[in-house]
Design a protein that fits this description.
CATH superfamily: Vaccinia Virus protein VP39
CATH architecture: 3-Layer(aba) Sandwich
Number of domains: 1
Helix content: 40-55%
CATH topology: Rossmann fold
Number of strands: 7
Order of helices and strands: HHHEHEHEEHEHHEE
Number of helices: 8
CATH class: Alpha Beta
Structural class: alpha/beta
């Protein structure tokens, strides 16, 4: 495949990660072995509760989706979507081991394979920086579509780039998305911003937005 073809595919789909085992190891190192605590804190910020339908956009190896299913309970529904077959294969294996029923689908986040107004909440954790600006807008529009009225969307991203080496640098080497840019992106497609700021971990920040009833 030519460099031009690679560039065109990246613009359409975004950066697709394939080394699932290395990805999980990097997250474990980045969180100093406290990944479960980190995931629970994100779900607290997203206000996830029992019985809700949750979508993890760019779910990777499924760790957040699995923790979300435990919180949503038997009456809840959790789905994860990712463009990487390798990531999803590991996600499904982890869900089976955890004995949690999570639906995983392979698809670009710019074209979510779900009907309108299905989910109460959606999450996107450090994946927006893998997309072009145009694709970020398409992704946000799709999330708006699949959320119920008053549905919530939590976006977690890296702030300004950092120097040095190590696992955090590995995650960061693809770039970052400034907080103001996330706010502008979500407001531009029809979300109302509820909260924004630092999450108190590394240099990550968050935006929690709500779909208006009119949208």
């Amino acid at each position: 495949m030519s460099t031009t073809d690679d560039s065109q595919r990246l613009n359409k789909v975004g950066l697709v990660l394939h080394n699932a085992a290395f990805y999980d190891l990097t997250v474990w190192l980045m969180t100093l072995g406290r990944e479960r605590h980190f995931r629970e804190a994100l779900l607290d910020r997203a206000r996830v509760s029992s019985g809700e339908a949750i979508l993890d956009v760019g779910c990777g190896t499924g760790s957040l989706a699995i923790v979300a299913k435990r919180r949503a309970g038997a009456l809840g529904r959790v789905s994860g979507v990712d463009a990487s077959a390798e990531m999803l294969a590991r996600a499904e294996k982890k869900a089976r081991k955890a004995r949690e029923s999570v639906e995983f689908k392979q698809a670009p986040v710019q074209s979510l394979p779900f009907p309108d107004r299905l989910f109460d909440c959606a999450t996107a954790t450090v994946m927006m920086h893998h997309l072009s600006r145009k694709s970020r807008g398409e992704c946000a529009t799709e999330v708006l579509r699949v959320l119920k009225p008053s549905g919530r969307f939590l976006v977690i991203e890296f702030g300004a780039s950092i120097g040095g080496h190590g696992p955090l640098r590995h995650f960061h080497r693809r770039g970052h998305v400034e907080l103001g840019e996330i706010v502008q992106l979500l407001e531009g497609v029809g979300f109302k911003i509820d909260q924004r700021g630092q999450i108190g971990f590394r240099n990550m920040h968050f935006v929690l937005a709500t779909k208006s009833i009119a949208a």
